Amino acid sequence: MKKDVQRLIQSLKEKFNDAPIVFINMPPIKELPAFTRTIKMVLGNVEKMLSEELDKLVLLHKDTYYYSNSITMSDWKERFNVPSESAIFFSDGVHPSKLAYQVWARDVAGFIRTHPQLSAALHWMEK
After folding, report:
1. By percentage, how much of the chain surpasses pLDDT 70?
2. Cα 27 → chain centroid
3. Whose CB among 64, 81, 88, 108 lies 3.0–4.6 Å from 21's, allowing a Cys bridge?
C-alpha cells in the first residue's frame, strides 16, 4: 500500500503543482449492517492498520494531509443531528447512502475549514 500511495501523491503533485492533497477516512466498516461480527472485526482491524500507515506516510509529503477521524454513527448523530441507525447510512448494507455521503462531506469540509494550512489554501484559491 505504501508504494501505491506514494506514487499517487507523486502523480497528483506533478499534475496539480501546489494544490494540497487530503486523504479522508474510510466508512465505518465496523458498523456495516450486512457484515457478520467476524468480518466487521477483521476488516475493521485492516482499516485501522491502513489508517495508521497513512497517518505516518502523509508526514513525509509537503501539503499532504489525512483526516483520520474514525466515523461512528453515534458521533455523526451528536455532531450533525442525524439519526444514528446504521441501516439508513448504507444503501445496500455495505455502500454509503446519499445521506451518508452528505454527512461525510460536511464532516470532511469541517476538517478542511478548521485546518490552518488547508483553510489558507482555500482562501488563496478563492481569489
Report:
1. 95
2. 7
3. 64
Give every CB contact of residue 67 below 8 A, 6+ residues apart in sequence.
22, 23, 24, 25, 108, 111
pLDDT confidence tier of residue 124, bands split at 50, 70 and 90: low
Residue whose grid cell is 455521503 = 101
Contact 38, 29 (CB under 8 A): no
Q: Specify whether the CB–CB gap between 40 and 72 falls below 8 A.
A: no
pLDDT at 123: 67
Asked if pLDDT for residue 46 goes beyond 70, the answer is yes
Per-residue pLDDT, 3: 92
Name every residue whose Cβ is closer than 8 Å to that of residue 98 and which is 6 or more positions away in sequence.
91
Tally of domains within the chain: 1
Instruction: Evaluate whether 14 touches 8 at the Cβ level (below 8 Å).
Output: no
* Cβ-based burial of 105 (10 A; exposed 0-12, middle 13-18, buried ≥19): exposed
